[in-house]
Amino acid sequence: MPNKKRTALDGLTVFLAGLLMLFLVGGGGAGWYVYSVYHEAFPDGVRPKAAREQTRQQVVPTKPPGLVERDAEEAQARAEWGQLGDYFGGTLNPLFGFVSVLALLITLIVQSKELRLSTRELENSSKALRGQNKAIEHQSFEQTFFAWLNNYHELLQSIAGAGPIVGELHGRAALYGWWGPGNSSALAFNWVREQFAEHERSTAYSEWIASLRHHTENEKTKAALEMLNESITPAILRKWEAVYLKHEYQLDSLFRNLYRLILWIHSQHESKLTPAQKWLYVGIVRGQLSWIEQVYLFYNGLTERGGKFRKLVNTYALFDNLTFENDPVLEYVRHNPPGGVAYMRSAFDSVAARRALGLPDTAEETMALAAGEGRQDTERD
């Protein structure tokens, strides 16, 4: 519709301009014709009144009768031409007034068109500026994101402590060394055996071991699990808590830094980051977490201290890459969490997490959606 209106307005402008030219050319031609005829009829033109009076005073006494008649005819002709001039004046004055109105209208239309073009140029410049600001803002976000992620890795690498066998360990090796003596499967099994060494509980312990190793479940294992679950998971978490408290001065800043990074991404307004783009950036973080880092985060999320982080874990499937085959105790705690505290299925399943966010099932489609939304934001702005 706007294009049709502009086409009609342009056609009206051309029509009015042509009509104005027609009046100018026609009026000029008519004036020139009248002037030519009048000049042909009166080649001497109209002399000044003083000259005519002098001529009359000099000629009248001796003017022949023929000249008198000629002067009368000439006076009559001049009167008729005067009437013709009045006619043309009365006719052309309204026409020229109309032409003046047309000229004014054409001027207004042209100015309106120029103003519209200027407004469109300003809008395009404003859109380009907004797009540039959007790109700068996104670039600033990415710089902050990668700087923050790099800071997390520096904190991780700065962790140091004595290992159980070798000397000082750093980074992920230190985390694994601290975790092994207190929470490894073999030692945990031995600890459970010590806790339930009584005869009436030894059978329950054996059934529990069988259910973990062979993934079987029957009436005996159900009864054993019901009896053991109330004590085993809290006991394992107490072991984890002992490890954390011993190295809290290094672990607290590591967990807090990672939590703040993911929370910062999650808190971005949708005008800056869409859900697909948030998933993309959290996925970058998740892809750089090692198995031992995920184990620490897993246990920490089951404590009161890690409750807020647990919500983000559920939202973005931070444990999608966490494997349990090497540690049955870890899997046991996953399926038997402490009372009132548990991870959702989406914490371990990216498809479920994406569906909860309204995103496509596959990672490829989500990444394509995130890239497409970024391009649309730039074009729209």
Please provide a brief summary of the model.
This protein has 14 helices and two strands; from the N terminus they run H-H-H-E-E-H-H-H-H-H-H-H-H-H-H-H. By secondary structure, the protein is mainly α.
What is the string of helix and strand elements?
HHHEEHHHHHHHHHHH
* Largest sheet data: 2 strands, antiparallel
- Dominant shape: rod-shaped
Strand-residue fraction?
under 5%
Any idea how many domains?
A: 2
From the alpha-carbon coordinates, what is the Rg to the nearest angstrom?
49 Å
| Helical segment count | 14
**Helical content, roughly?**
over 70%
How far is the N terminus from the C terminus? 23 Å
Main sheet strand line-up: 1-2
Structural class: mainly alpha
Q: Can you tell me the residue ranges where pLDDT is under 50 for at least 5 consecutive residues?
A: none
Q: Tell me how many strands there are.
A: 2
What's the overall average pLDDT, rounded?
75
